[in-house]
Design brief:
The chain has 83 residues and is mainly beta. It is built from one helix and four strands. Strand 3 (58-63) and strand 4 form a beta hairpin. The chain starts with 30 loop residues before the first strand and ends in a 6-residue tail after the last helix.
Length: 83
Amino acid sequence: MDPARPWVDTVKDKAGCNPLWLTECEPTINRPHDLLAHPDGRTLVLAGTPGYGHTGGGLLFWDRESRKRTLLVHTDVLRSTRQ
């Protein structure tokens, strides 16, 4: 979101929106809970829970320079110890 520019409704894959549409993580992350700006000044880390009816959640790593994402599902973060 650029607060110096007027609000333009965000639409997926549409140029000129403010705020910009960056990515979607559904169903892994449907409700974001925490956002951390990494000290490298480049990476944002977002944690959240999945949509209703799903279990788990995940972590989204967003590279502000390349505008690319890495999405980890809950089993990438914590392995199950069940046999």
